[in-house]
Amino acid sequence: MTPFGKFPDRGLEDLGLEAVLAAVDDAGLHQREVQAVYAGHARTGRLLGRENGVGQLVMAAAGVRGIPVTGVGNFCASGSTAFREAVMAVMTGLYDVVLALGVEKLSVRPEKGKPLTSDGMELEGEFGFTPPAFFALVAQAYLEKTGASADDLAQVAVKNRAHAEHNPYAQYRKPLTAEEVLGSRMIADPLTLLSCCPTGDGAAAALVVSDRMARRLDRKTVRVEATSLLSGCGDPTATGGFEVDRKTAHAAYEQAGIDPGDIDVAEVHDAFTVTEVIHYEDLLLCPPGDGVKALLDGQTALGGRIPVSTSGGLMSKGHPLGATGIAQVHEIVTQLRGEAGARQVERATAGLTHCAGGFLDGDVAISAVHLFSV
Amino acid sequence: MTPFGKFPDRGLEDLGLEAVLAAVDDAGLHQREVQAVYAGHARTGRLLGRENGVGQLVMAAAGVRGIPVTGVGNFCASGSTAFREAVMAVMTGLYDVVLALGVEKLSVRPEKGKPLTSDGMELEGEFGFTPPAFFALVAQAYLEKTGASADDLAQVAVKNRAHAEHNPYAQYRKPLTAEEVLGSRMIADPLTLLSCCPTGDGAAAALVVSDRMARRLDRKTVRVEATSLLSGCGDPTATGGFEVDRKTAHAAYEQAGIDPGDIDVAEVHDAFTVTEVIHYEDLLLCPPGDGVKALLDGQTALGGRIPVSTSGGLMSKGHPLGATGIAQVHEIVTQLRGEAGARQVERATAGLTHCAGGFLDGDVAISAVHLFSV
């Protein structure tokens, strides 16, 4: 992957190329050995006039043509969706080496400093009901229900920034205190600026290879144990929480035959402080209702029972939509290979990524969970 | 599929829903039996603010949630790409019933009457180098090389419109004469208005099912023999023609073990009159250089050796980008089932669809070929 950040002088092909070359170099392969590509991006059409052909553009820059290149989009989970399609392409038996690419460039947005709105939510966004506003309501309901405080939630930002200090790819790496988080500009009560993930530019790539090819590579490989993706499951009679994330995670655990208790490290969709703790519960990383407890006990910090967002998460790494899901894969693979340096989770053998996105008809539009093991 | 045309009062979900319900009804299934969806669209982000979530929107309208829904985009071949992904999803063994959906609404374009430009070609388009201008150069080179005339090319439009007369889904069904084609407004010499496909609104859907499910259905099913998709293969030293289409077709024939001579009916990407005859050659439906001969001999008309564009093609049906590739599948399936009525190709047992799109670095960005049999 590329470092995430704001790179006014770099284009999609430039960022994507760096990620692609890093991925093939890491595997000891040449980019011409890639047999198919899935490229995830979520806002390149509306921002850069590239609704189609982002993958082709990047692969042409890498000198690769004449292979299947498919663009996929699924809101903030576009990268996760590209990764899933790469896994499925290998599962068909048609290919041994498939590249998942995620790339996004958000620093060109004309409405700088304003939160992104989701496709189909422009009217709501125009009147202020943006994702931070929605998740502020989620946070208020969560605090009301659990008795936790805004100060507790701020610990997510503090923890993730402490993790980011050791990640050279993270956009923000300076440690934060809870006072700084709570004292930053108020966006939507109780979410302050530092309770929300920044956007940014960046790219990430992952090679998915067949068992046969994995055996040939002179590199420690990580097994994809489950790929689970579900669109909104909204049930108007259901109450509270993110049902779609729960169902997606359940399906992943079932597919893999892995118990949630066996997960050693996870990257979850911490777009806002509150979402991370809710996701601990949805993804069965802690008992229902115990999200804040798991956080405050240090269970989800480095050195704890199940470190979450060891990369710094979206909160510190930034959230270049299409790249995010594959950057999560990058972190989990790095951890499971034991190559995470100062942020290494000891004896990590099973990991999880979770990315969600979009709104549709009163529900989350898409949720993706992947499970990995060594 | 829906009829193609201009439907100012209908939205993406409305058009998509009609296509989805028609597809599941035809199979004798209920939409809740669909296990995964791939939705192809190419311009919904820039025109309608829906770069993500078109598939989710349509499936929610159909009352279906909680399944994997993935958006795919690949220029004019977005629908073909969605179909290919559906085929591959069934190939993984994870699903028995996967829906490919293509939907597009182009009648909302602010620059009505002007040709669409391809992503990444906006600068060229601004100065007039639009797809019709490019294909006019292609046509001039082809006429120069083959000694054919503009009058000969016009016969593509005449033939396809004659086919369209019998297709209730086609946007234009009134028979045309060569005089009318040549006498219509000049767009880019030698391509007149009626030598170019119209755009439009529409949706198409196809159910891809496993062998196991096919046996359970009380409906004649058609076998997908090959799915081939390649991005531009441009070789600056190569001369003439569309190398990527040739390579994509070769790969499809090889995958299927089908000889080009065995194809009984084909839908090719006749975005312009000249492209259809060139595609006869690229797709090996006739010997190299014999495209015009095949056309003028009536080999590719209904009743001929290998009828092409029996649906009326893009030329008469219209070209709502994301829907086009799946509408081609609709026609071939209808033909191979023997349900095409007045436009039925007798004893058709093998069919081909071909869709291409986009430009990139001096080459076609994507080409898709599917082969089918009964």
From TrEMBL, chains A, B:
Matches recorded under InterPro entries: Thiolase, Thiolase-like, Thiolase_C_2, Thiolase_N
Domain Thiolase C-terminal intervals: 245-361
Pfam families in the record: Thiolase_C_1, Thiolase_N
Superkingdom as given in the UniProt entry: Bacteria
Gene3D superfamilies: 3.40.47.10
Signal peptide span: none
A GO term for molecular function: acyltransferase activity, transferring groups other than amino-acyl groups
Domain Thiolase N-terminal: 1-210
UniProt protein name: Thiolase family protein
Source organism per UniProt: Actinomadura physcomitrii
